[in-house]
Amino acid sequence: MVPTEALAYRAASQPERYNYAIVRGFTVMALVWGVSAMVVGIYLAAELIWPILNLDLPGLTFGRLRPVHTTLAIFGFCGSLLFAASYYVAQRTCQERLAGTLLPLVTFWGWQAFVLLGVVSELLGYTQARKYAEFEWPLDVLVVMVWLAYLWVYTATLYRRSQPPLYVANWFFLACLLGMALLYVLENLVVPVDVLGMKSYSEFAGVQSAMVQWWYGHNVITFLLNMAFLGMMYYFLPKQVGRPLYSYRLSIIHFWSLVFLSVWAAPNHLNWTALPDWTVTLGVTFSVMLVLPSFAGVINGLMTISGAWHTLRTDPVLRFFVAALLFYGWVTLEGVTMSFQTINALSHCTDWTVGHAHFATLGWVSMMSFGVIYHLVPRLWDTKLYSVRLVALHFWVALFSVVLLAAALEIAGIGQALRLRTTDEYGNLVYSFMETDAFLTVPYLLRGLGGSLFLVGALVMVYNLVITVVRAQRKRAATEARIAAKLAVKGLRPREG
After folding, report:
1. The total number of structural domains that make up the chain
2. Does 372 fall in a domain?
3. Local structure of 244: helix, strand or coil
4. Are 301 and 233 a contacting pair, CB within 8 Å?
């Protein structure tokens, strides 16, 4: 008979059924890049309040730090979490280990190198000055190669699945992978000036360049920040609440309608430009139509919790998912409203748009991300969270700071727009630019305070998770040492039965 201690030790020593090591790595780096993005964002907010912080060092000026902030947030934080969540979900739903041994590592180190080199290049001033695609051509080549490796690993894992049905979360992740590959390549069609240099020029110019840039800018949000995080919602929310998805059929309708409608809505970002009116009208029309699939996802998520709302009292992780869904619904409605030309004339090029973007990134994306990370870490390290109370504290701090920051920016933007449009009976501006700028001081202070509180909440999360992981590793090491000692007393070697 094989001793129980030997079985336990052998089980602990065997390789994991799934490749969780790569998921752990991406989860840790998501936290690292996320906190870095928040720190840079707070410094940028401070620069707008106290311009003296724009030091003589070119790398610390607002113009160079702003793309650094978005790179860290979108590609570093969101991108790393996408890798972690998709690799985890694919393995769990397909009941198959992640395809390949080397390529998953290539995706990990390649993506981290891309984010790091992207930040360095932006600090040095090498940028194409494009929305969400600022990098010069050598980094574009790197990110496309890493993304293609990611696509192969993911699709190969799906192909090898032991379960014939493909769970809907994988549909959303796959759409993200395919959509981003197409978008990024077409947006970054450039001709290098010098093979050994960083400079290049775009294949597009004038209004065509604007159209292509905003086709990419709108749809990178759709595929990277909507499709990917909806995929996370469809898997992690039912798992967290312990109930099946409310309607699988509704999720499929949500998926296909979102894919079809989103790609046509980009021109609504180019109101009052040289773009033809019919194109803008097309974009606005499809933006309005996007309300239906978006709210299909919100309803599907909230109805999944129906009958288990009482768990919100004791499960603060679930609160992150619910808050994220509510923010998603709000951002969808506000985005449609801001696409109408009359309202767009007021909101465009003001801090109202910036506030709307932060409602989306902090309210929808970050709250969903926090919920996913809190769900993942205990399962990746086979332990329990160190403190549920700290999770609850993080939730309330994050919720308050998101509302404070984004609402302050939207109020600032509305006031800013009204002052810059107010004229007297002779058609002269009533408020000077400096008077409008002075009005923004208090909202900018509130924005800085909200961002600082959001960072505090994230640091509470990091502390909680670090203690969780350290305690889990110590417990595992102590268990293995205790089992090894018992086996030694009985004259058995650790790896023998």
Report:
1. 1
2. yes
3. coil
4. yes
Q: How far apart are CA 356 and CA 364, in angstroms?
A: 11
Q: What is the pLDDT of residues 390-428, one digit of tens each?
A: 999 999 999 999 999 999 999 999 999 999 888 888 888
Is 479 a domain residue? yes
How far is C-alpha 380 from the chain's CA centre?
Answer: 20
Is pLDDT of 11 > 60? Answer: no
Query: H-type helices in 127-167, by residue range?
Result: 137-159
The total of other beta-carbon atoms located within 10 Å of residue 389's CB is 11
Distance, CA of 235 to CA of 241 (rounded, Å): 11
Hey, what are 346's tokens? 């007021």
d(Cα 92, Cα 459) in Å, to the nearest integer? Answer: 29
Q: Report the candidate in 409, 401, 334, 315 with the shortest Cα–Cα distance to residue 362.
A: 401
- At 193, phi and psi to the nearest 5? -75, -35
DSSP letters, 394-407, are: HHHHHHHHHHHHHH
CATH code for the domain of 497 = 1.20.210.10
Distance CA 114, CA 92 (A): 28
User: Residue written as tokens 């939207």?
Assistant: 410
The C-alpha atoms of residue 54 and residue 63 are separated, in whole angstroms, by: 10
Unique residue bearing structure tokens 């619910």: 322
Rounded CA gap, 284 and 264, in Å?
9
Structure tokens at 124: 């040095």
Residues 391, 385: Cα–Cα separation, whole Å: 9
| Tokens linked to 102 | 């080397």
Judge whether residue 200 has pLDDT over 70.
Answer: no
What CA–CA distance (Å, rounded) separates 28 from 88?
Answer: 14
The DSSP secondary-structure symbol of 16 reads: P
- Please say if the pLDDT value at position 155 is more than 70: yes
Containing structural domain, residue 354: 315-497
Separation of alpha carbons 393 and 389, rounded Å: 6
| Mean pLDDT on 361-371 | 95
CA distance 489 to 487: 5
User: End-to-end alpha-carbon separation of the chain, Å?
Assistant: 9
104 inside domain: no
Distance CA 449, CA 415 (A): 20
Name the helix (H) or strand (E) containing 190. strand 190-192
In 50-190, where does DSSP find H-type helix?
Answer: 62-70, 79-94, 102-123, 137-159, 168-187
> Cα–chain-centroid distance for residue 368?
9
| Dist CA 269 CA 77 (whole Å) | 25
The number of residues in the chain equals 497
Is residue 2 assigned to a domain?
no
